[in-house]
């Protein structure tokens, strides 16, 4: 059996961006390395037969960043984005499936943000910034680098590219709106366009508008404001009326999970009612897929598993078509709706592309990490238990590799997922940030809880943490730990906790509430919700979790009650703090503040900052350091045998 090293974890590849051909015969996807070894990442485009009749083949060499494949309407060629002309600047390319060379279709100096080949086969809808003006070039030459809010990020404007001439036509009717998503009506009609008022992540207003654009004449109809964080516009027809569905946050928001919204597109610019199609469901939509000849399909997080649903056009309700164990994402559908493809992972199988009929078992098409089969992994078990108030909860337990429950008790590390609107599905738990199998192969039992606030159990479950993070979700986690102690699996004297992002917050919260944990790893975590509203990408959305903003009077403020920094004087647990220096989601000031508090109160800790990294750690050598450092931290405080008198 192979030894699990940091290099084994980070030197593999993962598939991304699957997209099925209109005729359903092939699926194209991107393959990219887990650990980035260069300044500019590289990836390749692959294609596989959906029926598994031939092995996958690589279409591009992977010497540049080739990604976001999109099929031509006739399924005979493939478009993709690439920075092969100039590293860091994406242009649109097209490659035939018969093995011919790729052709560059654009040389737009500002690069391409997004694109969509249109049904006429003659044009492409393109989202791109304006090319730099002479004045902008002059300022750059003079090193005028003053940053003005609202001007720092270029607007993505909708343009129509004529493939025969290579010329662009700007859609003027959208004005100064930043386009973030688009979809064409399946009959080759208008485009549905979602736009923001500014390309900046606006920390005060996250308002999105929905438009219909005629690609022939560029005429725009404004359908008004869409629900919060709208995405994935999807067309479908019922009784001759065209509908638009999309994913967005359940009202009143901003905490409450995702829902599918729907409106009947009016013939004129009149306002339309946006209805929720997922009300009352105890599962959570994670993706929508447009079908040319019928209602849309959707992926739903269903506890530890994932299900495919189809919209019933008569009842306007989603009906389950199939359910698969573990995790699935990025659902893509053929024009007929008879073949689907998705990324999927189960307990011991890493992420791969799967395809098949939506009502049947999806077959694995790719095998991106065969080397992992030579490893003895920890046994992964499903858990079902109740919170202290009787709420049904689930999660996962990973036993130390080669051990069984009867060999316990073991040192236990609890890893809390991000979000809080995230979840642990019953998928392969190996990753760069503290991951279950990475620790299980070192002799730890690992608890992966799904406390309230996450996805997979409906909107009420998700909304229960609004203004109350760290409260009931914390006792949910404690209930699971206590169950594992009672079952003889966890050693109560060797408990650790860790997590990334919201999991990092929960780690910081935990060590301020109890001294049961002997070690903690806080990755990219929040310690002060008021400061996060002031500095993070989420802005006022974060106030939905923390419960208040600092500008709401002189206090006391709710966000102080649920901020770990308020309880720093109680902390006795050794803490490893990990953070990316360029993180804009949870800025590094959160880690620095917590570090200073621990210094003030003399708490044993280490503070590690990764240069050039954002909210996710991407550089290969940083990933290796993180894996080694995390396991060494738990080894230092948990793994050594307990001696007499220390219990």
TrEMBL record:
Hydrolase in keyword set: yes
GO biological process: proteolysis
The keyword Hydrolase belongs to this UniProt entry's keyword annotation: yes
GO MF term (any one): serine-type endopeptidase activity
Domain Peptidase S9 prolyl oligopeptidase catalytic: start-end pairs: 437-639
Keywords, in A-Z order: Hydrolase, Protease, Serine protease
Entry protein name: S9 family peptidase
InterPro entries tied to this protein: 6-blade_b-propeller_TolB-like (IPR011042), AB_hydrolase_fold (IPR029058), Peptidase_S9_cat (IPR001375), WD40 (IPR011659)
């Amino acid at each position: 059996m192979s030894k699990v090293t940091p290099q084994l974890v980070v030197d593999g590849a993962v598939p991304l961006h699957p997209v099925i051909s209109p005729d359903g015969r092939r699926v194209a996807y991107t393959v990219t390395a887990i650990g980035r070894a260069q300044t500019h990442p590289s990836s390749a485009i692959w294609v596989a037969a959906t029926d598994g009749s031939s092995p996958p083949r690589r279409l591009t060499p992977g010497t540049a960043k080739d990604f976001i494949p999109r099929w031509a309407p006739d399924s005979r060629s493939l478009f993709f984005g690439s920075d092969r002309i100039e590293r860091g600047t994406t242009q649109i390319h097209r490659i035939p499936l018969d093995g011919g060379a790729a052709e560059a279709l654009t040389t737009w100096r500002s690069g391409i943000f997004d694109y969509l080949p249109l049904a006429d086969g003659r044009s492409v809808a393109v989202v791109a910034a304006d090319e730099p003006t002479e004045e902008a070039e002059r300022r750059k030459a003079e090193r005028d680098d003053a940053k003005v809010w609202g001007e720092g990020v270029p607007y993505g404007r909708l343009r129509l590219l004529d493939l025969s001439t290579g010329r662009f036509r700007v859609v003027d009717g959208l004005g100064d709106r930043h386009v973030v998503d688009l979809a064409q009506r399946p009959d080759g009609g208008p485009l549905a366009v979602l736009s923001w008022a500014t390309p900046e992540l606006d920390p005060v207003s996250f308002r999105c508008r929905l438009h219909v654009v005629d690609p022939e004449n560029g005429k725009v109809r404004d359908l008004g404001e869409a629900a919060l964080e709208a995405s994935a516009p999807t067309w479908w027809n019922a009784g001759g009326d065209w509908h638009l569905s999309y994913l967005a946050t359940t009202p009143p928001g901003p905490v409450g999970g995702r829902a599918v919204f729907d409106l009947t597109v009016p013939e004129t610019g009149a306002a339309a009612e946006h209805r929720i199609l997922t009300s009352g469901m105890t599962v959570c939509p994670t993706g929508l897929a447009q079908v040319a000849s019928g209602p849309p399909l959707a992926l739903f997080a269903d506890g530890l598993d994932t299900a495919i649903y189809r919209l019933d056009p008569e009842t306007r309700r989603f009906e389950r078509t199939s359910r698969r164990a573990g995790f699935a994402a990025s659902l893509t559908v053929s024009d007929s709706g008879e073949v689907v493809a998705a990324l999927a992972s189960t307990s011991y199988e890493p992420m791969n592309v799967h395809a098949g009929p939506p009502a049947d078992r999806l077959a694995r098409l790719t095998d991106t990490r065969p080397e992992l089969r030579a490893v003895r992994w920890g046994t992964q078990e499903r858990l079902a238990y109740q919170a202290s108030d009787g709420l049904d909860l689930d999660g996962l337990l990973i036993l130390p590799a080669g051990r069984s429950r009867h060999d316990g008790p073991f040192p236990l590390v609890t890893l809390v997922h991000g979000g809080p609107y995230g979840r642990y599905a019953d998928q392969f738990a190996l990753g760069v940030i503290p991951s279950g199998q990475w620790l299980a192969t070192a002799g730890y039992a690992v608890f992966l809880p799904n406390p309230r606030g996450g996805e997979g159990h409906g909107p009420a479950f998700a909304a229960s943490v609004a203004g109350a993070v760290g409260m009931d979700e914390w006792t949910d986690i404690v209930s699971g730990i206590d169950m594992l102690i009672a079952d003889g699996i966890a050693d109560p004297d060797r408990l650790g906790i860790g997590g990334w992002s919201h999991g990092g917050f929960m780690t910081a919260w935990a060590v301020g509430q109890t001294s049961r944990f002997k070690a903690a790893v806080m990755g990219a975590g929040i310690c002060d919700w008021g400061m996060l509203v002031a500095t993070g990408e989420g802005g006022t959305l974060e106030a939905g979790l923390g419960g208040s903003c600092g500008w709401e009077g002189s206090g006391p403020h709710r966000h102080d009650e649920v901020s770990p920094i308020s309880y720093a004087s109680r902390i006795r647990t050794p803490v490893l703090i990990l953070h990316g220096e360029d993180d804009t989601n949870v800025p590094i000031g959160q880690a620095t503040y917590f570090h200073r508090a621990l210094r003030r109160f003399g708490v044993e800790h280490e503070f590690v900052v990764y240069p050039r990294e954002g909210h996710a750690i991407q550089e290969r050598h940083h990933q290796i350091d993180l894996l080694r450092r995390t396991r060494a931290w738990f080894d230092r405080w948990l793994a050594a045998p307990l001696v007499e008198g220390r219990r």
